[in-house]
DNA sequence: ATTAACCTGTGACCTACCTCACAATAAACT
DNA sequence: AGTTTATTGTGAGGTAGGTCACAGGTTAAT
C-alpha cells in the first residue's frame, strides 16, 4: 500500500525517499468491508481518501433514488469534497462496492503538508486541475450527448468499471433509468 | 485592473506588495470587443484568462448548436482548460458577450510562478479545488433536477447573469431548448 | 431612418426517456 | 441445500422536453 501510494505521487512529480516518509506520516489507514459506509449524509468529513484496494461509490440519495456522483477504484481519490474543503456536513454518501483499503488525509494534515512541502501544494494543485477538467468533460457529455452516447463514453473511458459495477449504478452515473440503459442499442438492431 | 486582481488574490490568501509586483510581471493584458473570439476550436491555447471587465461564454459547437460550458464575468477565470493544461488543440470556443478586458497567464508563466512562489501554488490549488466542487454540483444538478429546478438553481447561484445573458444561452447552459425554458412554470399557473 | 439581426413567446406535433409491473437468472447469506 | 436478495431484461403506457414554424418586439448596423 505504502509503495503503491509512493508510485501514485511519483506519477505526478518526483520526491525523495525522505520527503515521502514525511508525507506518509500525515496519513492514516482504514479498511472497510463491502456495503460499509465511508461517509454518510450529515457526517462531518474527516478526510480525503485514496483507494489502495477496492471500489467505492459516492452518491446523492433522493428518497431512495441513488444519483452516482463518482466511483473510485485503485489509485483514485474519493470524498465529499464540498463538505471536506468547506468543513460543512456531508450531503452525499460513500459506500463500498467491494472490500476496500484506504489511506486517509485530514484537511489539517493536507494544509500542513502543502505549507511545509511546496511540492505537495503542486501535487494537489495538479490533481485538482485534472479533476476539474474531467468534470467539465462529464458536464459537456450531459449537454451534447444522448443516453447511448453517454454510456459509450463511459465504457471507453473506464472499461474496467463495467466488469465490477452493476448496470443499475452505471445507468445512474450517466443519468438514465436502468431500464433505458438495458434497452440501448436494441432499437437499431430491429430495423 | 491591477488593483482589482490584487484584491482577487488576497481574497484567497495574503501577499506582500513586493510579491504582487513579481506575480503581476507574469501576466499580459488583452482587450476584446463584443462578438470577438478569445479562443476558437483547434486553436493552440496560449493562456488562462482572468476577467477584469466584461462577460464571456465558453461553448462547444455541435454543427450550429452551442452548448455552454461556462460563463465568465468580472473576477472569474476562463479558458479551455483541457487544451490549456494538456497543451492540445482547443475543442471549444470562447467569445465575448460584452466588451471585455482580460489579463493572461501562459502555462509556462503559471508553472514558473508556482515554483518560485509557493503561495501561488497554493492559490491555484485552492482555485482548482473550488472549480472542482462547483463542477460536481452542476453534475449533481443534471442527475437529480429537472429543467425547471436546474434553471432555478442557476438563477439563485448567479442572479446577475440573468440581467446580462440572453435566455437562449441560459437554456443551453442548463441543457434544455430555449422553447422549453420559455415555457417553464407556465404549466402550474394554468391549473 | 430603415433595414437587418437578434431575442422571446407560443402552438402543434413528435420522441427519447421514465415509470410501473412482471419474470428469470445469478449471487449472497443461514 | 435452500432461501433471500441483487441484477437484468422486457412489455405497456405516460410525460418531459425536443423540433419546427410563425410572430411580435428589441437592438444594432448602414
Within CATH, the superfamily of the domain at 2-115 in chain A carries the name Jelly Rolls
Rounded radius of gyration of chain A (Å): 18 Å
Arithmetic mean of pLDDT of chain A? 94
Chain oligomer state: homodimer
Q: Main β-sheet of chain A: number of strands, strand sense, barrel status? A: 4 strands, antiparallel
- The class by helix and strand makeup of chain A works out as alpha+beta
**Spatial strand order of the main sheet of chain A:** 1-8-3-6
How far from one another are the termini of chain A?
52 Å
Global shape of chain A: globular
| Uncertain regions spanning at least 5 consecutive residues of chain A | none
Named at the architecture level, the CATH assignment of the domain at 2-115 in chain A is Sandwich
Biggest interface, CB < 8 A: A-B, 35 and 35 residues
CATH topology of the domain at 2-115 in chain A: Jelly Rolls
Number of helices of chain A: 10
Assign the CATH class of the domain at 2-115 in chain A.
Answer: Mainly Beta
| Counted beta strands of chain A | 8
The string of secondary-structure elements of chain A, in order, is: HHEEEEEEHEEHHHHHHH
